[in-house]
Specification:
The structure holds 2 protein chains of 2 kinds.
Chain A: H1 2-61, H2 67-74, H3 94-104, H4 107-116, H5 125-138, H6 142-152, H7 159-172, H8 176-186, H9 193-203
Chain B: H1 3-11, H2 15-33, H3 40-59, H4 70-88, H5 105-114, H6 119-129, H7 133-144, H8 149-155, H9 161-179
Classes of the chains: A mainly alpha, B mainly alpha.
Chain lengths: 204, 181
């Protein structure tokens, strides 16, 4: 009986936690819808300008892009899907705080806080490391980012994302062979499939 | 994608399907919700709750033979979520004509909303969130998804269901230690 009672409480507790995570995910979907609406027009404008730029660049010089340019064209920071930003400072939990810093682009401060987080702060180690690596990437500490992504690529949840960033790092570090190796693995999967194929074409 | 395919994906807890369901119906829901005179924040909150409630029903296999469209089901639950928001804000809600409903949406919405965790459950929730990935997976499948031990061992690729059983007991022991600290 005692066990049954405990089971009932645990079921409610886990349900509450799952709902909290689902809600956080839907918040991030909601935010991305709002941002994409706001940025819609200038995004198109920027894309057209970039496209025109690229076309004329190739028409004039018929050259290929340097690895630095490829990296710059394809790199975008991984969006925060863990904790939505909470505006009310008092209510910020440790995790929300660090992800809020990450989202605002305050990477040095975020890194400091990331280093202080432990599994006791209710965050999965793989997720923690994945975002830490992203922060290193933002701070242009490519070797450090590479070391961590090499670990997180073994994590089922972050495998494809980690391979993508490893490939970008290899491009940045002028190691096209290593980049191609990771891109070929990714080409059979779903994450950024279109971009992966484009990059393979560029590098070949 | 057909409605049936979408339900199957939701049943497998597919995040992309959830996102698709969310974005596809959001605009219509927000327009529909204007009748309830609740704030935009409350509308989005009610909509998200309705989406989660629907996804839980899909996980439990209750939508396998859905008698209406997904949208009707979603709006059915959402309507009562909005009623609840309006009631909390003490606003008078426009009377809706009583329609014949295929499901008891009122019960689904109220069942979803009433489950606020008590003190012990809040502790358990915090403890659960701090468990390792494997423990979370086993406990989530058992308690949230309603999988049997056999189904869990199949899902996680264990050869023997006893491995799952002992894993589950170890995790519960760990959890109890955490909350008794």
């Amino acid at each position: 009986m005692e066990n049954q009672e405990f089971d009932k409480h645990l079921k409610k507790a886990i349900t509450a936690e799952e709902r909290k995570l689902q809600k956080a995910y839907l918040h991030s979907v909601e935010n991305s819808l709002k941002t994409s609406k706001k940025k819609f027009n200038w995004r198109i404008a920027v894309s057209i300008i970039m496209l025109l730029g690229l076309v004329s660049y190739f028409a004039l010089f018929n050259q290929s892009l340097s690895n630095d340019e490829l990296y710059a064209n394809y790199f975008s920071p991984y969006e925060n899907v863990v904790k939505p930003i909470v505006r009310d400072k008092v209510k910020l939990t440790k995790i929300a705080e660090v992800f809020s810093l990450y989202e605002k682009g305050k990477y040095e401060k975020a890194l400091e806080k990331f280093n202080k987080l432990t599994p006791q702060d209710a965050i999965d180690v793989g997720t923690l490391n994945f975002y830490k690596a992203n922060t290193y990437l933002q701070l242009k500490q490519f070797e450090k980012a590479k070391t961590i992504f090499s670990e997180t690529k073994n994590n089922k949840e972050w495998n494809q994302e980690s391979l993508w960033y490893l490939a970008l790092i290899s491009i940045k570090l002028n190691d096209s062979d290593a980049a191609l190796k990771n891109l070929h693995i990714l080409s059979t999967k779903t994450f950024k499939n279109k971009e992966v194929k484009e990059l393979i074409n560029w590098l070949n | 994608m057909s409605e049936h395919q979408l339900i199957l994906l939701l049943k497998q807890a597919d995040k992309k399907a959830l996102k698709m369901l969310y974005t596809k119906n959001r605009y219509h829901f927000i327009n529909f919700a204007r009748n309830f005179k609740v704030s935009e924040n409350d509308i989005v909150d009610a909509y998200q709750d309705a989406i989660i409630a629907l996804s839980e029903k899909a996980l439990q296999g209750e939508l396998d033979n859905l008698k209406c469209s997904i949208k009707t089901y979603l709006f059915g639950i959402g309507k009562y979520m909005l009623f609840e928001k309006a009631r909390k804000n003490q606003k008078r809600v426009l009377d809706f004509p009583l329609e014949k409903e295929d499901y008891n949406y009122k019960n689904i919405a109220e069942g979803f909303l009433e489950e606020t965790p008590n003190q012990l459950e809040a502790l358990l929730q915090k403890g659960f969130a701090s468990l390792g990935k494997k423990c979370k997976e086993v406990l989530r499948l058992f308690y949230y998804r309603g999988f049997t031990i056999n189904e869990i061992s199949e899902r996680l690729g264990y050869k023997d269901k006893n491995v799952v059983k002992s894993q589950k007991s170890r995790c519960i022991k760990q959890l109890k230690e955490k909350i008794n600290k």
